[in-house]
TrEMBL record:
Keywords: Mitochondrion, Protein transport, Transit peptide, Translocation, Transport. Essential component of the TIM23 complex, a complex that mediates the translocation of transit peptide-containing proteins across the mitochondrial inner membrane. It comes from Amylocarpus encephaloides. This is Mitochondrial import inner membrane translocase subunit TIM50. It holds the Pfam family NIF. Residues 22-46 have a biased composition (Polar residues). Its main location: mitochondrion. Residues 114-128, 138-149 have a biased composition (Basic and acidic residues). It is found in: Mitochondrion inner membrane. It is a single-pass membrane protein. Residues 22-74, 101-163 are annotated as: Disordered. Component of the TIM23 complex. Belongs to the TIM50 family. GO terms for cellular component: TIM23 mitochondrial import inner membrane translocase complex.
Length: 391
């Protein structure tokens, strides 16, 4: 079975499971309503005819159980509507697959170049169909398992502290020499994409991912922090970061470093990357180049690179949020080179949080990497007299 057929089969199976789950929820809600509202025993004589119940004219007068059933029915119908849209995508995928299966035949007397072009077109269609199938499968998985908020035992939903906001509200000042930064990098959705989470060693790297990681590790202090399980993070890091660079990474954190409870750890909960956990870690604190003179990592010298702004909720002005990578190697805009330039610019300021609060990072879809423009030197990436002051 081809990779395309496997993705299409998994997407169809996910859609079927979602439909069955919605039906079970509606049936369960209906049965719970009947159990919670037992029929009252009639006190009238057995031979007396029961009067017909008046029909409810307004939904406001419905019992709570009926309203719950209606809500469940509405949710089920909404899910079925989503599945109908997915069926249209699957129909398109099957058509693309049929076009790919057709082998281009070379006409008598035709040129070899014509046949080669037909083969290339067929390959491009197959790659595009494979990408759509993978994206559809991921969409169905997201619709099936929506993230829930962490429990109170896991820390709940964090908010920025007043002290953090006060420091972020300060005026960002330019430096004559770039300061050293702590760069915290996410994996899935930021650096790479995993089509199938059951196969953690298989992934698609984002364009310029290896070069971006190499530059950050050689230039700054880097921490890898992912919400995936430790064994999966280990496989991903070993696959995308060479051993000589891996030794320079200060820490590789996974799901076990979020402070989740035992129950939340195995659930699809929203994870929050509290940067204070990094700053309070002794081994990470000692990685500061000026640790001996009392310098520490904090909001003025830390950058979080992630595809989810919600994950950086506790320190919202230290995150560089970029669009999620879903495996499309032809995505518009060279995303990681833009992050590279932004980190270099932040290193020329004394307060990262104040700088990002004044001018948040915004990805440009039409950005194109200039030849030879990747890999600026660490010392003074820009002339300070050409950098405008931020208001």
């Amino acid at each position: 079975m081809s990779l395309f057929s496997r993705h299409l089969r998994l997407a169809t199976r996910s859609m079927t499971q979602t439909l069955r789950r919605s039906a079970r929820q509606v049936i369960q809600a209906n049965s719970d309503n009947q159990i919670s509202q037992p029929r009252k025993q009639s006190t009238s004589p057995p031979n007396k005819k029961l009067e017909a119940r008046p029909r409810l004219s307004s939904s406001r007068s419905r019992p709570a159980g009926d309203q719950a059933t209606s809500r469940s029915l509405g949710e089920g119908l909404a899910t079925i509507s989503k599945l109908a849209e997915s069926l249209q995508v699957i129909s398109r995928l099957e058509q693309l697959k049929a076009d790919c299966v057709k082998q281009p035949k070379r006409r008598k007397g035709g040129s070899k170049g014509t046949s080669d072009r037909a083969v290339r077109n067929s390959t491009q269609k197959e790659n595009h169909a494979l990408f759509l199938a993978s994206k559809l499968k991921g969409k169905m998985e997201n619709d099936r398992d929506e993230k829930i908020q962490p429990s109170r035992q896991s820390g709940g939903v964090p908010e920025p502290t007043p002290q953090y906001r006060n420091i972020a509200n300060a005026r960002p000042n330019l430096l004559r020499e770039a300061q050293h930064l702590l760069v915290v990098i996410d994996l899935n959705g930021t650096i790479l994409y995993r089509p199938n989470k059951k196969q953690p060693t298989r992934f698609v790297a984002r364009p310029h991912a290896v070069r971006f990681l190499q530059y950050c590790i050689d230039t700054f202090t880097v921490v890898i922090w992912s919400s995936a399980r430790p064994e999966n993070v280990k496989h991903l890091v070993e696959a995308i970061i060479p051993p000589e660079l891996r030794q320079q990474v200060v820490a590789i954190w996974a799901r076990d470093q979020f402070g989740l409870s035992a129950f939340d750890y195995n659930q699809r909960v929203q994870c929050y990357k509290r940067l204070t956990r990094l700053w309070e870690d002794d081994s990470i604190a000692r990685s500061h180049p000026e640790y001996a003179v009392g310098r520490r990592w904090d909001q003025t010298n830390t950058v979080l690179v992630d595809d989810s702004y919600e994950k950086g909720r506790s320190e919202p002005y230290n995150i560089i949020e970029i669009p999620e990578f879903v495996g499309d190697l032809n995505e518009t805009g060279d995303m990681l080179p833009q992050v590279h330039d932004c980190i270099n610019q932040l290193s020329m300021h004394s307060n990262v949080s104040a700088c990002l609060m004044a001018v948040p990072f915004q990805a440009k879809e039409q950005f194109q990497l200039l030849r030879g423009g990747y890999g600026l030197p660490y010392k003074c990436p820009w002339q300070t007299n050409s950098m405008p002051e931020l208001s």
